[in-house]
TrEMBL record:
Renumbered residue ranges of the record's region Disordered: 299-321
GO cellular component, one term: ciliary basal body
Lineage top rank: taxon: Eukaryota
InterPro entries reported for this sequence: DYNC2LI1 (IPR040045), P-loop_NTPase (IPR027417)
UniProt keyword annotation of Cytoplasm present: yes
Name the record gives this protein: Cytoplasmic dynein 2 light intermediate chain 1
One GO term (biological process): intraciliary retrograde transport
Amino acid sequence: MTKKGGKSSICYKFLERTETPKSTLALEYLFGRRNKGIESGKEICHIWELGGGTLFMDLLEIPITIENLWNLSVVLVLDLSKAEELWYNMQTLLDTIRKLIDRALESSKDPTAKNKLYEIARSRIPKDHEDLQSIEPFPVPLLIIGSKYDLFQSEDFQKRKLICKCLRYIAHTYGASLQFVSSKSETLITKARVSISAMVFGTSSSKTTASDHNKPLYICAGADSYESIGSFTTLNVENKTFTEKNMTSEVILKAILIPFFDAHSLVPYSEIVNRSLEAVKHIFSSYFSQVESRSILPDDPANDPHFKEPDIDNLRAQKKK
């Protein structure tokens, strides 16, 4: 969903379309088919691709309806080469999607719909997971894709490590899957195709975890852990060591350690999760000052050669005379 983050390329690869992707205008609809067998017919997945970063995110209310919620999955594409926009785009889009989901649930005639949806979300995390009580699953299946890994891998190691740890923390807390992709790597694109197919068609996918920060991340929902992600207090980015001494508040450090919170605390669990995410955001933003992605209206598609319609174009030309 990040502007020019490689969403269309991933969609086209998933749909096995060979033409060169064109820029997405606002919210575009695509669909894919999968043969289930001679007697079973075909399965269809409906894809709504949001273009323009956060500019047109209100249009997401079109696909996010109470009728679609039970089969809805979200693939969030983040441009790894633009760390200064990454957190802003991620938080803004996920918050908007969550609000639209809650709004759709409020319109349901079933008063238990919200509880049912969140129970399904929690069931995606293994019951014996060590962090089960510390995970606040996103209400629908969520796959976070870090795109343009080919550019990202040339960055300073400590910068890459910080971005990887923060994205792992977010994905794990939301019970989401996380993987890095490059349109220049057929292997990584294939992995993305398999992951998306598993989300929409229920096909099998690799469960092998790749969490080495020197390599493209590939971590399925529920396969990570806070212990594996590790501490945020020993990072060194551009010779600036991140320690407890230069934190603006001790509360921030404590909030990061969700698994070690007192289980009997009077603070609502959702508030604890929010505090921890704000703490990680603070760390990330300390090194990558966030800027709002520029919301510039795209050029008039009527003048785009990709959208030529001779009959309509002739009528428009006559009207302008």
